[in-house]
């Protein structure tokens, strides 16, 4: 049996259950209706986008800190 952290030859979506505040749920429902997409699809998109943004920001911060350290040594 393969663990969740070890993808097989094909990456497939994984179903998860989360609890969100009611206001967040309402905002998701309204936005999904306006955009004409499912609540699940919108939530997955927003989560993936947030993770990519966070990863890019963290990566940029690490590069900036490394550059600052190099400049201080020089």
Your description of this structure?
0% of the residues are buried. The chain has helices spanning 22-35, 39-73. The chain is an all-alpha fold and 74 residues long. It has one domain (22-73). The model has no long low-confidence stretch (mean pLDDT 84). It comes from Cyanobium gracile UHCC 0139.
Secondary structure: elements and pairs:
Blueprint: H1 22-35, H2 39-73
Helix pairs in contact: 1-2
Region (Disordered): 54-74
Biased composition (Basic and acidic residues): 55-74
Organism: Cyanobium gracile UHCC 0139
List keywords for this structure.
74 residues; mainly alpha
Q: Overall 3D geometry?
A: elongated
Question: Helicity, in percent?
Answer: 55-70%
Instruction: Look at the helices and sheets and give the structural class.
Output: mainly alpha
The total strand number stands at: 0
Query: Main β-sheet: number of strands, strand sense, barrel status?
Result: none
State the domain count. Answer: 1
Low-confidence stretches: none
Q: Report the C-alpha radius of gyration, rounded.
A: 19 Å
- State the separation between the terminal residues, measured CA to CA: 52 Å
The fraction of residues assigned to DSSP E strands is: under 5%
How many H/I helical runs? 2
Elements, N to C (H/E): HH
Mean pLDDT: 84
Protein name: CopG-like ribbon-helix-helix domain-containing protein
InterPro entries: RHH_5
Organism: Cyanobium gracile UHCC 0139
Pfam family, one: RHH_5
């Amino acid at each position: 049996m393969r663990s969740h952290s070890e993808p097989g030859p094909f990456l497939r979506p994984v179903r998860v259950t989360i609890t969100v505040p009611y206001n967040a749920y309402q905002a998701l429902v309204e936005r999904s209706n306006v955009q004409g997409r499912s609540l699940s699809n919108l939530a997955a998109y927003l989560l993936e986008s947030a993770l990519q943004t966070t990863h890019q920001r963290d990566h940029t911060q690490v590069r900036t800190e490394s550059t600052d350290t190099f400049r201080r040594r020089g």
